[in-house]
TrEMBL record, chain A:
<feature type="transmembrane region" description="Helical">
    <location>
        <begin position="51"/>
        <end position="69"/>
    </location>
</feature>
<protein>
    <submittedName>
        <fullName>ABC transporter permease</fullName>
    </submittedName>
</protein>
<feature type="transmembrane region" description="Helical">
    <location>
        <begin position="173"/>
        <end position="194"/>
    </location>
</feature>
<dbReference type="GO" id="GO:0005886">
    <property type="term" value="C:plasma membrane"/>
</dbReference>
<dbReference type="Pfam" id="PF02653">
    <property type="entry name" value="BPD_transp_2"/>
</dbReference>
<feature type="transmembrane region" description="Helical">
    <location>
        <begin position="226"/>
        <end position="246"/>
    </location>
</feature>
<feature type="transmembrane region" description="Helical">
    <location>
        <begin position="99"/>
        <end position="120"/>
    </location>
</feature>
<keyword id="KW-1003">Cell membrane</keyword>
<keyword id="KW-0812">Transmembrane</keyword>
Automatic annotation (TrEMBL), chain B:
<comment type="similarity">
    <text>Belongs to the bacterial solute-binding protein 2 family.</text>
</comment>
<dbReference type="InterPro" id="IPR025997">
    <property type="entry name" value="SBP_2_dom"/>
</dbReference>
<feature type="signal peptide">
    <location>
        <begin position="1"/>
        <end position="20"/>
    </location>
</feature>
<keyword id="KW-0732">Signal</keyword>
<dbReference type="InterPro" id="IPR028082">
    <property type="entry name" value="Peripla_BP_I"/>
</dbReference>
<dbReference type="Pfam" id="PF13407">
    <property type="entry name" value="Peripla_BP_4"/>
</dbReference>
<protein>
    <submittedName>
        <fullName>Ribose transport system substrate-binding protein</fullName>
    </submittedName>
</protein>
<feature type="domain" description="Periplasmic binding protein">
    <location>
        <begin position="93"/>
        <end position="347"/>
    </location>
</feature>
Length: 327, 394
């Protein structure tokens, strides 16, 4: 194995505040220019709005994942949670519009509950969160399969699906504003406010150095558990939007946990916790989606997406490792 | 500590990515729009010209058997003797099922269970084992069933080549074997039951799409997965039709039969090419997702094919689509039970047992629409006269 040379590497990296959103904004700008050259129509308001609407679920998941990662943990269960939620919603609604709202509330409660269980197992039983949430991932996949005999049943009502498919029509300048985008903006504002509150500061402090946080009177386990609950809630909202977008599917959430984590590290959030902004994580998700859109415009096979995600994760971990060792 | 955490995280994530993002290996997708009709790639190794010709001929053949019971009809029968399997009942019939992992199989299996119930005076026990879409499990399942005292064995193979030895082993055990739906590469079962087959399905859809779209337009072909004979032959017949019509096949993509993935793929193609002039698919379960991708992008829905799943028939009528639905009728799930009982009676059966494969067109669409049944139900279930209809299928 080669010895890394942190000093020379870090010299070549741009000098920016660690965890800031400037690098991701720069990448986003470059991608926008490239997209603009290749497919100028894409930047017109209607297609841009629709792109933002379609990207809303992964951006929400990135925000949820951010809370967990910045507190020093991981949530690998969100993808399977999204699938489970879509399958459960279809079976419970069974095409009956009257059941839409009760099921939406139930999904939110279910998401929060899964987050609570993940959080308590991680913090109270001291199971590393990769293992906890990987276990939850397998449990949910298996449970959904058992419950549904391996194929989706029932159907989603149009009322349910409008969150993911419909839009405010005839909006001045923008034309068509997807409901998903409105949901995203509301959640994004709430997330930013939350991170500016005392809870946000505590969350980052816990991720940066749990021992110090504990000694200064923070209940680390409670803070981290709350982060998992937020991730579960984000998955529930994402599931409502995704189920609405594509209908009943057994793979609605496949691979999303990976996409969300890639987005978070791309957004400058340190794996291991303590550094990075929630806006950065959400911009990371947007950048990732834009990168995939660009690959699509250039006719790059969809199979390469996972390769790109893998490369981003490796690069981000390498960069953060060289940074922390050169401190 | 943090560094090792990050490293562990990376390892976990990468391994997770490997199992959760099941994009197909770079296949013919994205092979672009260079020359007309060049996007269809090489012909499948499953393509057999003689079978193709025979199936296309069967599309016009007149079936023998009762007209109101297409699951008992046979196209061009060739009878085989079954006297050596004659046995007095009531019987124990065993069924090794590839999977129940899509609505087509769910509807089919319910139809089969109802047929068993209808024949309960002659069947004392019906054993069903679900292989959950795994070849290895199905091989073990068949092996287990051989020791369970079955009077007849029905097999719906998961994949063609891998399951062939298991079916051969079952034949050697001496009990009558009936294969249906997907085939195996051996003639040892007493009979192989299925409708006309993949070539017929693929051809009907591709002919329609290439005739209804503008000449030289862009077609997107959607396939479920490679390696299953009925699906491979659907695509290979479509390929022949598209190459002949010189349409521009801009993409051949695998969807895993999943609507979320399908909608994303179709949306990507609409974004990349501005619009798509025709959509062909090897199975209709994701047809509605494809329609929605065009609707949500604000584009007209191009000529396309689906299948007899009710959600597609409904959106076809409501949105006045230019569409066709070749079928692979779920009523074929009744036939293996009927065949097994006939074989145990020592009656001659046709081998292969080719069932008719009707097509839903604009003209007969209304007769297949049924607002009372759920969206994922299949119109050709042939189940309306069976015990428990309609609750069992809801």
């Amino acid at each position: 194995m080669q010895t890394v040379q942190p000093r020379s590497l870090s010299l070549r990296l741009p000098r920016v505040r660690p965890g800031g959103v400037l690098p991701i904004l720069a990448i986003l700008a470059v991608l926008l220019v490239l997209v603009g050259i290749r497919q100028p129509d894409f930047l017109a308001p209607p297609s841009l709005m629709s792109f933002l609407g379609r990207s809303a679920p992964i951006i929400l998941l990135a925000a949820g994942q951010y809370f967990v990662i910045v507190s020093g943990e991981f949530d690998l269960s969100v993808g399977s949670l999204v699938t489970a939620q879509v399958v459960v919603a279809a079976r419970l609604i069974d095409s009956d519009p009257a059941r839409t709202w009760p099921v939406v509330l139930l999904l939110l409660a279910f998401g929060a509950l899964v987050g609570l269980v993940n959080g308590l197992i991680t913090t109270r039983l001291r199971v590393p969160s990769f293992i906890t949430t990987l276990g939850m991932f397998l449990i949910l996949v298996g449970a959904v399969y058992l419950w549904s005999d391996g194929a989706p049943k029932g159907g989603l009502s149009e009322e349910f699906r409008r969150f993911g498919r419909r839009a405010f029509e005839d909006v001045p300048v923008l034309g068509r504003v997807p409901f998903a985008l409105v949901v995203l903006v509301v959640v994004a504002v709430a997330a930013v406010l939350l991170m500016r509150s005392d809870f946000g500061r505590t969350l980052v402090a816990v991720g940066d150095n749990p021992r110090t946080a504990e000694l200064s009177g923070v209940r680390v386990w409670r803070t981290r558990t709350f982060a998992f609950i937020l991730s579960g809630l984000a998955a529930a909202v994402a599931a409502i939007l995704l189920g609405g977008y594509s209908g009943v599917s057994f793979q609605a959430g496949a691979g999303l946990e990976f996409g969300a984590i890639t987005a978070v590290v791309l957004g400058g959030v340190a794996l291991g916790g303590g550094r990075g902004a929630v806006v950065g994580a959400m911009l990371g998700a947007l950048t990732l989606e834009l990168l995939f859109a660009l690959m699509n415009f250039y006719g790059v096979s969809g199979a390469l997406r996972s390769t790109v995600q893998g490369a981003i994760i490796l690069l981000a971990v390498a960069v953060s490792a060289t940074r922390s060792s050169s401190r | 500590m943090r560094r090792s955490m990050a490293a562990l995280a990376a390892v976990t994530l990468l391994s997770l990515a490997a199992c959760s993002t099941d994009e197909p290996a770079a296949g013919p997708s994205g092979s672009a729009s260079s020359a007309a009709g060049s996007g269809t790639g090489d012909q499948s190794k499953f393509f057999v010209q003689a079978d193709y010709d025979a199936e296309l001929a069967l599309l016009d053949a007149a079936p023998t058997g009762p007209a109101d019971k297409p699951w008992e009809q046979v196209l061009n029968p060739t009878m085989v003797d079954t006297a050596k399997f004659k046995k007095s009942g009531p019987h124990k019939i065993c069924f090794s099922n590839a999977a129940l992992n899509n609505p087509w199989r769910q509807v089919g299996f319910k139809t089969m269970q109802a047929e068993v119930e209808a024949q309960k005076s002659r069947i004392k026990e019906f054993v069903h084992v679900d292989a959950e879409g795994k070849d290895q499990k199905q091989i073990a399942d068949i092996n287990d069933l051989l020791g369970k005292g079955c009077d007849a064995l029905i097999v719906s193979p998961n994949t063609t080549a891998t399951l062939t030895p298991a079916v051969e082993a079952a034949c050697k055990a001496g009990l009558p074997v009936v294969v249906f739906d997907r085939g195996v590469n051996t003639k040892c079962p007493v009979t192989f039951i299925n409708p006309i087959g993949g070539y017929g399905f693929g051809h009907v859809g591709a002919e329609f799409v290439s005739q209804k779209m503008k000449p030289g337009g862009k077609v997107l072909a959607l396939r479920i997965l490679p390696g299953v004979d009925v699906l491979e032959t659907r695509w290979s017949a479509a390929k022949v039709a598209f190459d002949k019509a010189k349409v521009d096949v801009v993409g051949v993509e695998f969807t895993d039969g999943d609507p979320a993935k399908t909608k994303k793929i179709v949306d990507d193609y609409i974004q990349r090419y501005g619009t798509i002039d025709g959509v062909w698919m090897d199975a209709g379960a994701v047809a509605v997702a494809a329609v929605e991708a065009f609707q949500d992008a604000g584009k007209p829905v191009p000529p396309m094919n689906g299948e007899d799943q009710l959600d597609f028939l409904k959106i076809w009528k409501d949105k006045k689509l230019t569409a066709i639905a070749p079928t692979y009728p779920t009523y074929q799930w009744r036939t293996p039970i009927i065949a097994a009982l006939q074989i145990l009676d020592g009656q001659q059966v046709s081998s292969p047992w080719k069932l008719p494969q009707p097509t839903v067109t604009q003209d007969n669409l209304d007769q297949y629409l049924d607002a009372g049944m759920p969206p994922l139900h299949y119109a050709m279930c042939g189940c309306t006269d069976l015990p428990g209809y309609p609750q069992r299928w809801k």
